[in-house]
From TrEMBL, chains A, B:
Active site location: D26, D28
Domain of life of the organism encoding this protein: Eukaryota
Protein name: 4-nitrophenylphosphatase
Catalysed reactions listed for this entry: 4-nitrophenyl phosphate + H2O = 4-nitrophenol + phosphate + H(+)
Pfam families reported for this sequence: Hydrolase_6, Hydrolase_like
Cofactor note: Divalent metal ions. Mg(2+) is the most effective.
GO CC terms: cytoplasm
Binding site for substrate: S59, N60, N61, K223
Gene3D superfamilies in alphabetical order: HAD superfamily/HAD-like (3.40.50.1000)
GO-annotated molecular function: alkaline phosphatase activity; metal ion binding; phosphoglycolate phosphatase activity
Annotated EC: 3.1.3.41
Swiss-Prot/TrEMBL keywords: Hydrolase, Magnesium, Metal-binding
Lineage: Eukaryota, Fungi, Fungi incertae sedis, Mucoromycota, Glomeromycotina
């Protein structure tokens, strides 16, 4: 397997930047760490824009809609334009509307948060679940009193801080009683980083449905899965050869780029260390790597 | 593979009953269907008792303690004696106390219901979680505010109608931050039957932990897993050769008996049909089968 190229001086950067028109950029671990902006990140993005590059911020986190992400960019004082954000919640809504052409007389049962429902609303897709099933008291529960909405034709599951048994029972029942019901996940990250540790992620939240149904989802809209790239390529009319995925995580960002025949650039400001890609037994290798995306601003002078 | 023997007349029954001193009997689908007692069941149990057989009711349902099961037997007017009930919640408490000899200065973090906590209390095992973490509001949540109890040395997960993200995050954190922390499930049934359908079961409730940790549990205390039989054999000083497992489900009850070198009797009052065991490709085959456990009373005359 070929070694990744470390970008370390101005001419490396020039050659790298000349190869691509579009950069897909992961957020957490690349442009920010929770609420702290990576040093020189604003300047790096500004330089890419000056060179006429197209930027798309691509995140697996389904808790935020594009509107929610925009607020975070603005709060952190990072320049952002309409159409530059592509989270897994939006990818799910885009996929339903434009890839599978989900019928307008059907509804999506949502296990998830406001990030998902805002994106479904923005695409004009009807839904049930989500906020309406947050309140649940197990002491009142009888299995006979599940009410099924006959218009539900898909279940979409993402990270849900308000997960409960009612949501699992309803989602399971829709999928179990109707084999034609679509089963989608926003993303399948088993964990995500927060507060210096990790916590169960969207893939963990969906695991009871996969286990109880003994069925994998029909599509997972987050990296490294292909349906997310299908959405991006269709929406942006992308040329994969002139596109580079920039990320901090080998198993999602870099694999996503490799699977899609994109260029790949790993940054070391997130979860991956240099030794992870230089080891003899390294299995996912980016084309390029740099210490930080901020280095584009400081070294390319 | 040998064909199962159908018990169909008095001499079949005599020969069958003579082979065993102890009968392990599943509950749901064998002695009752939800709240309806199987016809002639009371008479069948009475006949077994008259012949001096030992009976043990063995259930994977962790929602009830032995005390809870006793109430159900009494409500359904089925004769029951102390020491005749062995549910997966009790098996978990017994396993912690007598098999792994869980230290008395440690606590078990419980994802589950009152069935589990009653049994831990009865065995003098200290615990955290369960009822104290039922109330949770995701809108207040920050990942930094998880408080870990340093005395927790095991996580025990069973069916939990009041499952929420706080419980998952805490259980994950105990196991993730302390590789020595024991990880136990009461049972791994992916679904259970109720109201003429099925719903996500204890195995589904535990799936987010298994997915997020990328780790299987150290022991599963329900059928068909061996740790439950280890508890029963030790507690009752059983001779497996003189013991027969009676159940309605091939993948739990009958496999449990086969794995433990017990005799096995399938009843057809639950989820399994005769064709399932007579099919060419049948993989789990009981030694014997009958239409209903009630037949022991009516045919053995």
């Amino acid at each position: 397997m070929s070694k990744p190229v470390k970008l370390s001086n101005a001419s490396d950067y020039e050659a790298f930047l000349d190869k691509y028109d579009t950069f897909l950029i992961d957020c957490d671990g690349v442009i920010w760490l929770e609420n702290i902006v990576i040093p020189n990140l604003r300047e790096a993005l500004s330089l890419l824009r000056k060179k006429g590059k197209n930027l798309l911020f691509v995140s697996n986190n389904s808790a935020k809609s594009r509107k929610g992400y925009k607020k975070k960019f603005e709060k952190l004082n990072i320049e952002i334009y309409d159409g530059e954000i592509f989270g897994s919640a939006y990818a799910s809504a885009y996929y339903l509307k434009n890839i599978v052409k989900f019928p307008s007389d059907k509804k999506v049962y949502v296990v998830g948060d406001v990030g998902i429902t805002e994106e479904l609303e923005s695409e004009g897709i009807r839904f049930a679940g989500a906020a309406e099933d947050v309140k649940f008291d197990g002491t009142d529960w009888t299995f006979a009193n599940i009410k099924q909405d006959p218009e539900v034709g898909a279940v979409l599951c993402g990270f849900d801080i308000n997960i409960n048994y009612l949501k699992y029972a309803k989602a399971y029942t829709y999928l179990h009683s109707n084999p034609g019901c679509l089963f989608l996940l926003t993303n399948d990250d088993s964990t995500f980083p927060a507060s210096g540790s990790t916590f169960p992620g969207g893939g963990a939240i969906a695991a009871p449905l996969i286990t109880a149904l003994d069925r994998n989802p029909d599509a997972v809209l987050g990296k490294p899965n292909k349906p997310m790239l299908d959405c991006i390529v269709q929406k942006l009319s992308l040329n994969p050869e002139r596109t580079c995925m920039i990320g901090d995580r080998l198993s999602t960002d870099i694999l996503f780029g490799i699977n899609g025949n994109l260029g790949t650039l790993l940054v070391l400001t997130g979860v991956t260390e240099e030794k992870d890609i230089l080891a003899e037994n390294a299995r996912i290798i980016p084309d390029y790597y740099i210490s930080s995306l901020g280095d584009i601003a400081t070294l390319n002078t």
